[in-house]
Each structure stands twice: as C-alpha cells, then as structure tokens.
Write a structure and sequence with these properties.
Helices cover 0% and strands 54% of the residues. The strands form 2 sheets. Strands 2, 4, 5, 6, 9, 10 and 11 form a 7-stranded mixed beta sheet that branches. Strands 1-3-8-7 form a 4-stranded antiparallel beta sheet, with no helix packed on it. The relative contact order is 0.32.
C-alpha cells in the first residue's frame, strides 16, 4: 500500500500560479508519478506525468503553462502551474503507477476565480 501527502491547492485569480506537491510513502523504482484532475460533472483526466528517468508528458490544455518535476530521493512529484485559467479549476489527484497498478492521493482543490 502507498500513502500520499498532497499540498499546495487553493484559490487563485486568473493568471496566477500555484505549486502542488505530493510525497509518496514508498520508493518504487520504475514508477510513473503524475497528476490528474476532475472538474465538476466531468471525468478525471490526465494533467501531466513523469517517469523515474524524467520523461514527462502533458495534456495539450496545460502545455507551456504547467511543469511537472520529480525528486526521486524524496519520492515526491511537483506540479508548477502558471497562468492559471478558470477552466483549470477542479480537484487535483496525485497518481502513482507501478506494475500495472494505480495508487491515488486524496485530492487537493484548485479554484481559479476572480
């Protein structure tokens, strides 16, 4: 089992920035860590993820605005979110994929509103 400590969500105005962090309780070499989000009435979607080796992928809607990074020594993944838009609002979930299994954090709310 894996536990996560997520932090960094909150309320921000359009154009603002937030940084999410997620620390996993275990080191899983070869895992992929990332962030998904779910807006009200919509399905959960991938925002960005990153491999142990640092290869990252992003949803088209966040490219050039969000940056994902990872500290393997701390089992932690970060998501730097810049130029936030109202459509970025939702619950952001930390995700870890390892040996065909998904592990999820409890989620942190991000609200972009003036």
């Amino acid at each position: 089992q894996v536990q996560f400590v997520e932090s960094g969500g909150g309320l921000v105005q359009p154009g603002g920035s937030l940084r999410l962090s997620c620390a996993a309780s275990r080191n899983m070499f070869g895992s992929v860590m990332g962030w998904y989000r779910q807006a009200p009435g919509k399905q959960r979607e991938l925002v960005a993820d990153i491999t142990n080796g640092g290869s990252a992928r992003y949803a088209d809607s966040v490219k050039d605005r969000f940056t994902i990074s990872r500290d393997n020594a701390k089992n932690t993944v970060y998501l730097q979110m810049n130029n936030l838009k109202p459509e970025d609002t939702g619950v952001y979930y930390c995700n870890l994929k390892f040996v065909a299994r998904d592990y999820w954090g409890q989620g942190t709310q991000v609200t972009v509103s003036s």
